[in-house]
Amino acid sequence: MTIEKVLPIWWSFIWRSTLAGLGLGLFLGFIGGFIAAATGNPEMAATAGALLGYLGSIPASIWGLKAAIEKHNLMKA
């Protein structure tokens, strides 16, 4: 593959993963922090929120790569 073919795929993957990871990470981080604070462990709210936010970025990255590959027709049928 040439750089002209790789860069659009890379750019598509980065933006999709960043936006999906940000959204999912914020949502899961909020839920984890809220639950930790509501159960009487406010000192654990930041840790729980960060951990769930990081874990949420993994499926978002996988989805971003899948969507970029499908958009640029790299899947063999």
Low-confidence stretches: none
Record field, number of beta strands: 0
Tell me the overall shape. rod-shaped
N-end to C-end Cα span: 19 Å
Determine the fraction of residues in helical runs and give it as a percent range. over 70%
**Mean of all residue-level pLDDT scores:** 88
Biggest sheet overview:
none
Classification by helices and strands: mainly alpha
How much strand content do the residues show?
under 5%
Number of helices: 2
Explain the overall architecture.
By secondary structure, the chain is mainly α. The chain has one domain (3-71). The chain is 82% helix and 0% strand. The chain contains two helices and no strands. The chain has helices at 3-38, 45-71. Helix 1 (3-38) runs antiparallel to helix 2 (45-71). The chain is rod-shaped and about 55 Å long. The mean pLDDT is 88.
Give a quick precis of the structure.
This protein has two helices and no strands. The chain is mainly α.
List its traits:
single chain, 82% helix, 77 residues, mainly alpha
Strand-helix topology:
Elements: H1 3-38, H2 45-71
